[in-house]
Design a protein that fits this description.
Layout: H1 24-28, H2 31-40, E1 43-47, E2 53-57, H3 60-67, E3 72-73, H4 94-97, H5 110-121, H6 124-129, H7 131-143, E4 150-152, H8 153-158, H9 160-170, H10 177-189, H11 201-224, H12 235-241, E5 243-244, E6 247-248, H13 251-281, H14 284-295, H15 300-313, E7 322-324, E8 328-330, E9 333-335, E10 340-343, H16 345-348, H17 383-400, E11 405-406, E12 428-430
Parallel strand pairs: 2-10
Antiparallel strand pairs: 1-2, 3-7, 4-12, 5-6, 7-10, 8-9, 11-12
Helix pairs in contact: 5-12, 7-9, 7-17, 9-10, 9-13, 10-11, 11-13, 13-15, 13-17, 15-17
This protein binds protoporphyrin IX containing FE.
Protoporphyrin IX containing FE binds next to helix 13 and helix 17.
């Protein structure tokens, strides 16, 4: 149902016209609608374009609270509509591919066990050692268009970088990585408005192929693993070997884990790079500040800057689905058992009750505990890798193409209309050839 001024709690200032949600106009700039919701209906029940009814949580305090609330399960079996086959939630093609056991779909104690095991393999140290490879990949991609003086930064840069990076980290042989690029491209192209990437044939097929490939790769690697770990062992081998109190991942769990790393780390990072560059190109003073600090060899502003870009226009607009396992009250609203709850990270991160001048991009912002990577037990496992890729991509681009500028009117840019993610379809730029 549409939201009306009547939804405003007593004592609120005149609400004005209710914003339309999930339209194309909303997709290009959802922030005014989120400001309205935060003020007038901070925990709001609405019908999503897929027909599923869900609660949207838009204030920072309630968003953080919901993300850490153990009564909100990640397991879709708790969805009240799941039994009627109405609730289209999760990864497209997931059900058929039997990928249900990944981290974003499970609760403790299973989640605790799997997260502990994967954390032994996917360590900050492994990510730090990967930095030279990310730099090499970044330079190679820029080499591909630097002489042309123009490029589409989504297609030629933000999209391939994370997919090649994760493939490399996992240990997918180079000669097979272009297949992943194609499958991932299919998934990205068909993210449909409001459906969280609804299960179209092509997407489901790509998911199935990726899954099948990873299962086979894991099987082969498991068979060929030696008795002791190699110092430069890939992440898949480390996942197979990881153990905790004598427990190890099963082959199926390792495959689901590799898949979720790919899935969770791909479109998110595409959008971090895409939205990040776009925001910088639209804020020349901030961009100049960053460029000067990079030139001076200072990495501090780059680090706080990438966090601010995540807060200001982050890749994950809504956290992934949660379902109430018991009745609870959130922001004064009664949430019934089985109700889906969607935490709107993009709205919480612009909450004036938490951030000073939240609509201003300030790369020097210090007090910046944004929710862009989530919060609580499902806090992003790949945050160190995302930071490495985001910082390397932005710094290298601004250094190699210092006069890079938008080659389109902002109003002509199109945003992908998926429910969970926020990102541009394309980002045309021009620059003096390198
Ligand atoms: C979880 C954001 C990159 C792997 C999450 C969550 C968020 C998030 C918001 C929590 C979702 C929820 O609670 O519903 C981001 C952003 C990224 C990024 C903004 C890029 C800028 C990555 C990368 C990887 C990754 C590069 C791995 C290669 C994961 C995994 C989870 C997760 C495995 C599930 C953790 C769990 O359930 O315990 N991410 N992510 N992410 N992310 Fe990321």
């Amino acid at each position: 149902p549409d939201i009306t001024a009547a939804d405003a709690p007593a004592g609120c200032p005149a609400a004005g016209p209710a914003p339309a949600l999930f339209t194309w106009e909303f997709a290009s700039d959802p922030y005014p609608a989120y400001a309205w919701l935060r003020e007038h209906a901070p925990v709001h029940r609405t019908e999503l374009p897929s027909g599923v009814e869900a609660w949207l949580v838009t204030r920072y305090t309630e968003a953080r609270q919901a993300l850490a609330d153990g009564r909100l399960s990640k397991n879709p079996v708790h969805h009240s509509e799941a039994a009627h086959g109405k609730g289209k939630v999760g990864i497209p093609g997931e059900r058929s591919a039997n990928l249900m056991t990944h981290l974003l779909n499970i609760d403790p104690p299973d989640h605790t066990r799997l997260r502990r095991l994967v954390s032994k393999a996917f360590t900050p140290r492994r990510v730090a050692a990967f930095a030279p490879r990310v730099q090499e990949l970044t330079d190679r991609l820029i080499d591909g268009f630097a002489e042309r003086g123009e490029a589409d930064l989504i297609h030629e840069f933000a999209f391939p970088l994370p997919i090649y990076a994760i493939c490399d980290l996992l240990g997918v042989p180079r000669e097979d990585q272009d297949d992943f690029r194609d499958w991932a491209g299919m998934m990205l192209r068909h993210t449909k408005a409001g459906q969280g990437g609804g299960p179209r044939g092509g997407v489901a097929k790509s998911v199935k192929k990726m899954r099948g490939y990873l299962a086979e790769l894991i099987h082969r690697k498991r068979a060929s693993l030696g008795a002791t770990a190699e110092p430069d062992e890939d992440l898949i081998s480390a996942l197979i070997r990881a153990s905790d109190h004598g427990e190890q991942l099963t082959e199926n769990e390792a495959a689901a884990m590799a898949f979720i790393l790919l899935f969770a780390g791909f479109e998110t990072t595409v959008n971090l790079i895409g939205n990040g560059i776009y925001a910088l190109l639209r804020h020349p003073a901030q961009r100049e500040l960053l460029q000067k600090s990079i030139e001076a060899g200072d990495t501090e502003l780059l680090a706080t800057g990438v966090e601010e870009l995540l807060r200001y226009d982050g890749p994950v607009e809504l956290a992934t689905w949660r379902f109430a396992t018991e009745e609870l009250t959130l922001g004064g609203q009664r949430i019934a058992v089985g109700d889906p709850v969607l935490v709107v990270l993009a709205a919480a991160d612009r909450d004036p009750a938490r951030f000073t001048e939240p609509d201003v991009l300030d790369l020097t912002r210090r007090d910046n505990q944004h929710l862009g990577y989530g919060h609580g037990i499902h806090y992003c496992l790949g945050a160190p890798l995302a930071r490495l890729e985001g910082q390397t991509a932005l710094a290298t681009l601004l250094t190699r193409l210092p006069d890079i500028r938008l080659a389109a009117e902002p109003d002509d840019l199109r945003w992908r209309g998926g429910l969970i993610m926020r990102g541009l379809r394309s980002l045309p730029v021009e620059f003096t050839p390198d």
